[in-house]
Write a structure and sequence with these properties.
The complex is a heterotrimer. By secondary structure, chain A is an alpha/beta fold. Chain A has eleven helices and twelve strands. The chains are: A alpha/beta, B mainly alpha, C mainly alpha. Chains in contact: A-B, A-C, B-C.
Chain lengths: 326, 303, 328
């Protein structure tokens, strides 16, 4: 199946004064219609910056320095997003790529009504009449299961609960029926029960709107629940990517293994918490060779010198490690 | 449980962070220069003579003998500017210290003790705050000038310049007091203060050891910005006749210039304006640098 | 909403009493007996005594609790503090010592000229400040932005007085672009000619501080999460700044603006003085020069009352701009 969005060699750097902090250091992945890719990693590993890079919304002083993001078009060849002029990129945002953010509390503008904010997402891209837009907004609010959409239309964000606001954010992201939905930690700020419902909603809407979804999260539970494939990020690189079930069953990278071990499971007598020893190094001091080697239990001499090349360890299972687990 | 006490190292590193910016270092140098000139004015040691009148030398433009020219009485404008520095710095310093002490003490008291003490202090600063600032200073300076007070048997007479310092200091503490009170309330409920209280520390010790270090940076910033505004206020009050009399000050010099300028005598205005301009510019830049250096949120970000 | 305002006004009562108390302490207790000043050098002792009784200065300063205990209510009420409160709260400020005119009347006649100067200066100034600040935020870190930041710090450091003197001597005096000073006898279109230069100088003086403040406010707002959401929708930079940021920035802007309102009525002391505009600022400067105590007392109280009124207006404006605020 043709991928909808293909990312390769993506590099994003933050330049603070004279120092350059490489937040994303050559990332490749692709998204397919009707599928969800989970992008998982500890905080500071560059997963949010990757998501923002796809939208070209990296905040200053960040800058995309290399790579390609190709969007599949129904007619004609793929469109290279990173070389588009800003005015054309603006027409892609919201229409082809929708995005939802972590903080439903602050991501909506407090001084405009829910209706106005969803409406805006439609009107910047499509010249529709007032009534048509309104009907579509109500329809969208109904699609995301917001109770009583006709009267919610006139409510302000502060009158909604966190989960309801995240539903509104999803409605905004879906307003123009995008090909790709980027969800950056969409459930982190929500209660566990609300979390499950929002994830279910995203999956259902993905199928209905035939979208590709990139789900950025630090929560392996979320990954297990809502994705078909998963990519693990460490210090700005994807160190392992595989089908979700395979990755959970047979992780190949010691880091992935550590992450999985750190999730407490019911029924296990002795669990090893904090299975990854040490802390994430800062971006200004990325270790030479394999960047994971200082924390790695399997590291050998070669790991200190050479960064591992990606290799296939199974069907669709790629890992960057000199000594992958069997 | 450890108190986030800001150790000497913290202040050293904050100071280094501030002075790492060349602008801040240059500004501090200029500020110290002004303070040195003011101090020199006080010692009277070889200070330039501003008093000798010489009518034949009236209104001479800048020359080698008089780099800033002369005024209507033939007095040296440079010497007047130097003396004016002494007046401006001493007014601003007295007022700043007064405002700092009142604001800090009342703010900490109100914030720490709460209850009726807080009510009383809040009432006091809300009241002062509702009088437009310029009116408040004017009223204080006007009422206080040339008054004689008997305090503990000793007689005090407030002369022009002291009235200005007092008026500025007695009215300038409100903003700082508000800030400190808010911070003190915030810190009062923090765990380390509660813990110290549970261990039986006395209130005075608690305020000084635990709360004060956490509000010092607010005081520093308010101090440097207050200093600027007092210098400008001294100019306006002098112009209104409430400031110094019979000695030169920047305000009086600018006031003199309002008639001189029509005759093309620009140097007296230029000298006083430049003197005020550079001190307030450098204090602003320095204040900004202190804020950026002490506010971790802003560290590393270019503004 | 009505109950809200009633509560707010009740809350003002202790503040108003505080202000009256401060003016009493300043102008009566510290200021002392005005009779010698008012009566003039040639008044006899009897005349002075008569005047003292007339002005109420023969009474004790503070209420005497002894009288209250003795059941002498009238005697208890006969003191200078209560007299001061009564006249202050009824806005009966008496007469100017200098001109023997009713102070209320002086305030009424001064308000017009003051407003004719300060309202245009305020509106033009605010418009320019916010526009420039928006442009800076719009093109943050550009050469334009950095130039404006530097210029505004330079602008703040210029002493106001020097700016006025320079403007008057050069723009009006030497180059004759404006009248040097004056104000028409009767209010009419010719006012524009006379207030033009003072307005210009007032705007110039406030520009640096205003731009600096509003730029910070607007830049803080552009870092908010909802701005990112708007960009992710595909909204252009103009739509983000004017549609989203400006309306949110109005909340801190209102707070700043209201502080300025009392000064609209009081005028700009220095500008009115230099350009001989017969407003309240001129009146105040004149009162200071002539040691006209009752006038300063009156203006202090009136200024505070206007400020408190402006605070009430802010609450209304907040409710109008910010849907999270309700007046309850």
């Amino acid at each position: 199946m043709n991928p909808v969005l293909e990312v390769s060699g993506l590099r994003t750097h933050f330049g603070i004064e004279k120092r350059v902090l490489p937040a994303v250091r050559g990332v490749d992945f692709s998204l397919s219609r009707g599928r969800t890719l989970g992008l998982v990693g500890e905080s500071g590993c560059g997963k949010t910056v990757t998501a923002l890079s796809l939208m070209r919304l990296v905040p200053r002083p960040g800058r995309i320095v290399a790579g390609s993001v190709r969007l599949d078009r129904s007619g004609g060849g793929p469109l290279e997003l990173l070389s588009l002029p800003e005015s054309r990129m603006r027409r892609i945002r919201g229409r082809e790529l929708g995005m939802i953010f972590q903080e439903p509390m602050t991501s909506l503008n407090p001084v405009f009504t829910i209706g106005e904010q969803v409406r805006e997402a439609i009107r910047v891209h499509e010249p529709l009449g007032k009534k048509a837009v309104r009907e579509r907004v109500i329809g969208l609010l109904r699609d995301v299961n917001l109770p009583d959409p006709e009267s919610r239309y006139f409510d302000y964000p502060h009158q909604l609960s966190g989960g309801q606001r995240q539903r509104v954010m999803i409605a905004i992201a879906l307003a123009c029926n995008p090909k790709v939905l980027i969800a950056d930690e969409p459930t982190t700020a929500l209660d566990v029960t609300v979390q499950a419902r929002i994830l279910g909603l995203i999956s259902r809407l993905r199928d209905r709107y035939e979208m590709a979804v990139l789900l950025v999260t630090h929560d392996l539970g979320v990954v297990a629940q809502a994705t078909e494939r998963v990519a693990v990020m460490y210090l700005g690189r994807i160190v392992e990517a595989a089908a979700t079930r395979r990755l959970f069953k047979a992780p190949a990278h010691p880091y992935t293994r550590g992450l999985l071990d750190s999730v407490p499971r019911l029924g296990e007598e002795k669990r090893r918490l904090a299975a990854v020893r040490g802390a994430v190094p800062t971006l200004s001091r990325i270790p030479a060779g394999c960047s994971f080697h200082p924390r790695c239990p399997r590291a050998g001499e070669v790991c200190r010198r050479e960064s591992p090349a990606p290799r296939e360890v199974g069907e669709g299972h790629r890992v960057e490690c000199h000594f992958p687990l069997e | 449980m450890t108190a986030p006490e800001k150790s000497r190292n913290y202040w050293l590193s904050a100071g280094r962070e501030v002075l790492r910016r060349p602008r801040a270092a240059v500004s501090l140098a200029v500020i110290l220069f002004y303070l040195a000139v003011a101090l020199w004015g006080f010692t009277g040691w070889k200070t330039p003579d501003w008093e000798t009148e010489n009518f034949e030398m009236a209104y001479r433009p800048p020359s080698r003998a008089h780099p800033f020219g002369t005024d209507i009485y033939g007095r040296d404008v440079l010497a007047k500017t130097v003396y004016g520095t002494r007046v401006a710095v001493s007014v601003a310093l007295t007022a700043s210290v007064l405002a700092l002490v009142i604001g800090l003490v009342l703010g900490l008291l109100a914030g720490y003790f709460g209850g009726w003490i807080d009510d009383l202090i809040t009432w006091l600063f809300s009241t002062l705050q509702s009088i437009p600032y310029i009116l408040l200073i004017l009223a204080f300076a006007f009422v206080l000038q040339d008054r004689t007070f008997t305090l503990f048997g000793a007689e005090f007479r407030i002369r022009g310049i002291n009235a200005v310092s007092l008026a500025l200091g007695l009215t300038g503490w409100v903003g700082l007091c508000r800030l400190i009170r808010g911070e003190a309330i915030k810190h009062r409920e923090r765990e380390y203060v509660l813990a110290a209280r549970a261990l039986g520390s006395s209130p005075g010790r608690l305020i000084v050891r635990q709360i004060l270090p956490n509000v010092v940076h607010l005081a520093v910033i308010t101090f440097s910005l207050g200093f600027v505004s007092y210098i400008h206020a001294e100019v306006i009050l002098s112009f209104l006749g409430l400031g110094v009399k019979h000695v030169p000050s920047w305000g009086v010099m600018i006031d003199d210039a309002k008639l001189e300028l029509f005759r093309g005598v620009w140097w007296q205005l230029a000298a006083a304006t430049a003197a005020i301009f550079f001190i307030s510019l450098t204090l602003h830049i320095f204040g900004d640098a202190v804020r950026d250096g002490l506010d971790p949120r802003l560290r590393g970000e270019r503004r | 909403m009505l109950s809200y305002f009633i509560r707010r006004i009740l809350y003002l009562v202790p503040i108003l009493i505080g202000i009256a108390l401060i003016t009493f302490l300043l102008f009566r207790v510290v200021g002392g007996d005005p009779v010698d000043r008012v009566a003039g050098r040639y008044a006899t002792e009897e005349q002075k005594e008569e005047l003292r009784v007339q002005l109420g200065f023969d009474r004790p300063l503070w209420p005497q609790p002894g009288r209250l205990l003795a059941g002498d209510l009238d005697g208890f009420a006969r003191n200078q503090l209560f007299g001061h409160f009564a006249s202050t709260f009824t806005f009966r400020f008496g007469r100017s010592e200098q001109y023997r005119r009713s102070i209320s009347e002086m305030i009424r006649s001064g308000a017009g000229p003051s407003l004719s100067l300060t309202v245009p200066a305020f509106i033009i100034g605010l418009f320019l400040q916010i526009t420039i600040a928006m442009l800076c935020a719009f093109r943050r870190n550009s050469r334009f932005d950095r130039t404006v930041v530097v210029l505004s710090v330079l602008g703040i450091s210029v002493p106001y007085l020097a700016l006025i003197i320079f403007g008057q001597a050069y723009l009006a005096g030497r180059w004759g672009l404006f009248p040097i000073y004056g104000y028409p006898e009767r209010f009419g279109f010719s006012v524009v000619r006379y207030v033009a230069l003072p307005v210009l100088l007032g705007v110039a003086a406030g520009l640096g501080a205003g731009v600096r403040f509003y730029r910070t406010v607007i830049l803080d707002e552009t870092r908010a999460d909802y701005v990112r959401t708007a960009r992710a929708k595909g909204v252009g930079e103009g739509g983000v700044m004017f549609g989203h940021v400006l309306k949110n920035a109005l909340i801190p802007i209102i707070t700043q603006v209201v502080v300025v309102i009392p000064f609209l009525f009081l005028g700009s002391l220095l500008l009115e003085r230099f350009f001989s505009i017969p407003g309240l600022g001129f009146m105040l400067v004149d009162a200071v020069a002539g040691a006209d105590w009752p006038v300063i007392n009156a203006l202090t109280f009136v200024g505070a009352v206007i400020y408190l009124g402006a605070l009430l207006v802010t609450d209304l404006l907040y409710a109008l701009v910010d849907p999270r605020v309700t007046l309850k």
